[in-house]
C-alpha cells in the first residue's frame, strides 16, 4: 500500500511526550494536563484554555531509579512513567489529573505530587475517585468527584471556563476526533484492510497525546486520504487478530505481531480506540458533566469492574468485536505485575476459546519489550495454530 502522507509526522510526534504540537500549544498559552487512565475524561481536560496529554514513556530502556522508589514488584508501566518524570520528560505539564483506579499509576502520581519532580512552580496533582459500579449512586458520586477534583481546580488555579457551555464545546471537538478515528478504523473491517494495525495505532496514540485542535487537521486529511487508498494485490498477512489487554502504547509491539503474519484489526486495550473513540452523547435536558460521567462509566470495559455480569459482558464484547472485524483469534496481553489484567488475561484464555471458539494467545510482557525474540516465537506459533485450525475446519 502507498504510504500515508502524515505517517512519518505521526511517528515523530510519538518520540517524546513534549512533542512539537505540545510545545506549540504551550507557546500559545494553553495549559498542559497529564493523565494516565481512560477514567479521567480527556474531554474535560480539553476545555478551552487547556489540553490533555495521555502520558507515555517512549524510549525508556530501564526504570532503575524509579524502581528504587516504587519497588521492582510493581508493573513496568508505572515505573517507566516515573523514570521519565525523574529525567525531566514531563516538566512541561501544568497539572496531573489523577484517578484512583490502578494502584501502580496511583503511586506514580502520588510521587509526582509529594516529591519535587516536575520543575514547574504552578504544577499540582489532584485525584478523582472512580466508582467500581455503574449504578445511579455511582454516577452521582463520579459527577461530584469530577466537579471537585477536575473542574473546580482548573477554574480556581488557571481560570479555565468550566461552564456547561464550555463542556459542550469541548465535547463537540472531542466527537469530531472520535468520528474521524472511527472512519479511519473502519477500513480494518474490510476483507483486505487498507490500513495496518501499526499505522492505526500510531494515529490513535497521536490523538491521545497531542492537542486536539492541532492534530485535527492531520486526522481530517488522513481520513480523506483513506477513501482512495488501495490495498495490496496480495495480502501480506496470514490471519487477523484482536489485540486486547492492559496499557499498550508501543506501536513496535503491534509491528512485531504483524511481522509474524497476524494483522491487528481491532485494539481493545487501555490505549486503544474501541472505547476511547466512541462519540459522547448529550441527551436533551441533561447537564453536560453528567452526560460525560455516564459516558465514561458505561463505555469502559476495564477489568476493575469485577461483578460476574460485567466480566461476562467483557468476554461477549471481545467476541462481538472479533466477529465485526473478521478476526481469526485474540491476543491478550498484560504488563507483568498488573493486578487487574493478570486475572482478566487468565479468564480470557479460558472463556474465549471455550464459550466463543476463539483461539487465544496469552502474553505477559514488560512495558519495555526486551524479549522480542521470545514474543516472536509465541506469535509465530499462534499464527501457525490458526492456519492449522482453518485447514482442519475445511476438511
Low-confidence stretches: none
Topology, number of strands: 8
Helicity level, as a percent range? 40-55%
The portion of residues forming beta strands comes to 5-15%
> How would the global form be characterised?
globular
Structural class designation: alpha/beta
Overall average pLDDT = 93
Strand line-up of the largest beta sheet: 2-1-3-4
Q: What name does CATH use for the topology of one domain?
A: Rossmann fold
Cα Rg: 20 Å
CATH architecture classification of one domain:
3-Layer(aba) Sandwich
Describe this structure in words.
The protein is α/β, with parallel strands linked by helices. The chain has a domain at 232-394: 3-Layer(aba) Sandwich (Rossmann fold), CATH 3.40.50. Helices cover 51% and strands 13% of the residues. The protein contains 15 helices and 8 strands. It has helices at 7-13, 20-27, 64-70, 76-86, 103-114, 136-158, 164-186, 197-209, 212-226, 251-259, 273-276, 288-299, 308-324, 339-356, 372-394; strands spanning 31-35, 50-54, 95-100, 124-129, 239-245, 262-269, 329-335, 360-365. The strands form 2 sheets. It has a 4-stranded parallel sheet with strand order 2-1-3-4, sandwiched between helices. Strands 6-5-7-8 form a 4-stranded parallel sheet. Helix 5 (103-114) links the parallel strand 3 and strand 4. Helix 1 (7-13) crosses helix 8, helix 7 runs antiparallel to helix 8 and helix 7 runs parallel beside helix 9 (212-226). The chain is globular. It starts with 6 loop residues before the first helix and ends with a helix.
Amino acid at each position: 500500500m502507498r504510504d500515508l502522507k502524515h505517517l512519518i509526522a505521526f511517528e515523530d510526534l510519538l518520540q517524546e511526550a513534549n512533542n512539537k504540537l505540545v510545545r506549540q500549544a504551550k507557546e500559545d498559552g494553553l495549559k498542559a494536563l497529564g493523565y494516565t487512565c481512560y477514567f479521567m475524561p480527556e474531554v474535560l481536560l480539553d476545555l478551552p484554555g487547556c489540553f490533555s496529554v495521555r502520558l507515555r514513556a517512549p524510549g525508556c530502556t530501564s526504570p532503575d531509579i524509579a524502581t528504587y522508589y516504587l519497588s521492582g514488584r510493581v508493573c513496568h508501566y508505572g515505573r517507566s512513567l516515573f523514570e521519565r518524570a525523574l529525567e525531566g520528560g514531563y516538566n512541561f505539564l501544568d497539572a496531573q489529573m489523577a484517578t484512583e483506579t490502578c494502584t501502580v499509576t496511583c503511586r506514580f502520581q502520588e510521587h509526582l505530587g509529594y516529591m519535587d519532580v516536575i520543575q514547574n512552580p504552578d504544577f499540582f496533582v489532584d485525584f478523582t475517585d472512580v466508582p467500581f459500579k455503574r449504578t445511579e449512586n455511582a454516577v452521582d458520586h463520579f459527577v461530584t468527584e469530577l466537579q471537585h477534583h477536575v473542574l473546580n481546580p482548573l477554574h480556581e488555579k488557571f481560570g479555565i471556563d468550566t461552564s456547561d457551555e464550555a463542556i459542550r464545546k469541548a465535547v463537540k471537538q472531542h466527537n469530531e476526533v472520535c468520528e474521524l478515528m472511527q472512519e479511519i478504523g473502519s477500513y480494518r473491517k474490510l476483507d483486505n484492510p487498507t490500513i495496518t494495525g501499526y499505522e492505526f495505532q500510531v494515529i490513535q496514540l497521536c490523538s491521545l497525546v497531542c492537542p486536539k485542535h492541532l492534530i485535527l487537521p492531520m486526522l481530517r486529511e488522513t481520513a480523506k486520504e483513506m477513501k482512495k487508498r488501495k490495498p495490496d494485490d496480495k495480502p501480506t498477512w496470514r490471519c487477523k487478530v484482536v489485540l486486547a489487554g492492559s496499557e499498550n502504547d508501543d506501536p513496535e509491539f503491534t509491528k512485531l505481531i504483524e511481522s509474524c503474519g497476524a494483522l491487528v484489526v481491532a485494539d481493545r486495550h487501555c490505549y486503544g480506540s474501541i472505547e476511547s473513540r466512541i462519540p459522547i452523547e448529550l441527551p436533551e435536558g441533561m447537564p453536560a458533566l453528567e452526560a460525560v460521567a455516564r459516558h465514561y462509566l458505561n463505555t469502559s470495559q476495564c477489568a476493575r469492574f469485577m461483578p460476574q455480569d460485567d466480566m461476562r459482558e467483557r468476554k461477549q464484547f471481545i467476541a462481538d468485536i472479533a466477529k465485526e472485524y473478521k478476526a481469526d483469534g485474540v491476543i491478550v496481553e498484560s504488563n507483568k505485575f498488573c493486578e487487574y489484567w493478570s486475572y482478566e488475561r487468565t479468564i480470557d484464555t479460558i472463556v474465549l476459546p471455550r464459550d466463543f471458539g476463539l483461539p487465544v494467545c496469552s502474553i505477559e510482557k514488560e512495558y519495555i519489550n526486551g524479549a522480542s525474540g521470545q514474543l516472536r516465537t509465541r506469535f509465530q506459533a499462534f499464527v501457525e495454530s490458526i492456519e492449522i485450525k482453518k485447514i482442519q475446519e475445511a476438511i
